[in-house]
Design brief:
alpha/beta, Rossmann fold, 2 domains, 6-stranded parallel sheet
Length: about 350
Amino acid sequence: MEIFDAMAQNSHEQIVFWSEPSIGYRGIIAIHDTTLGPALGGTRFWDYSSDSEAITDVLRLSRGMTYKAAVAGLDLGGGKSVILGDNRTKDREGIFRAHGRAVESLKGRYITAEDVGTSVEDMEYVLMETDSVTGLKGASGDPSPVTAFGVYQGIKACARFLYGDDSLQDKHIVVQGVGHVGYYLCRDLANDGARLTITDIDEDRIKRVVEDFGTTVVRNEDVYKVDAEVFAPCALGAVINDDTLKVLNVDIVAGAANNQLSESRHGKMMYDQGIIYAPDYVINAGGLCNVYGELQGWTSDQGKAKAGEIYDTILGILNQAKAEDIPTSEAADRVAEKRIAEAL
């Protein structure tokens, strides 16, 4: 991989590589754009197959954070960090204090929080080394419920756009991934009367959701074939691709996962197939609103209210895409790029 070429492709500002071999820490921090403010984005702990895969992921995720903050109207730039390794490790303090030192080296240009494979408790270790961390105990805490609430509001907006009514009563919704965010999304959807089908690679997660909400379960490889109104991807990215679009049988794709499109052209393919797509970085911005509120001294109710604005934001993007006859993914990009350009 030619790293500078990869950075230039989407105008990234900075990549930091940090290694402390004695404790097994290998971390990468990517800052995409700081036009609107300091870069904020969570720390993902994942067992990548190669360094190149990790770099590609952190570059994509950090760019998504820039656009997410811009569309949500937050005064933040976009960044992300990844830790390479097994996120089941018991040596949490050593790993995350090392990560805190990496974050501190950026002197406030980047602020981190939890993400896939990390927790609020892990961020307490980061805090031992830097103040550039949010989503802490006693403050905004776990952003998952607020992220889920924003996704729920986005699904309702899609329903209103397509069906003329945002009620989810008896709507069949397939949730792929029922971890932190997926669980709370299932709770919100069930409370609205939706009929749920779920899948996950973790049997304990499945059991919890089935017991709490009475859902149907399918194998992960069969989830794309389920006949439903909504598909809500809430696990890892790139699930909308050439193969899945051949079998996907839904009206709406709206979920919490980052980078749902394997390639940008898949947004156009969904548009051509008549599938309503809620751009991932727009609909899943609730967690960012939550931690931004912590930085601003907001109450939890203020943070949730900000996440609730995702309803109107999604509705606006859907209407813009219809008016301009373009995919919703392109309409969302235009909104984000316009705000950043106006701030220059």
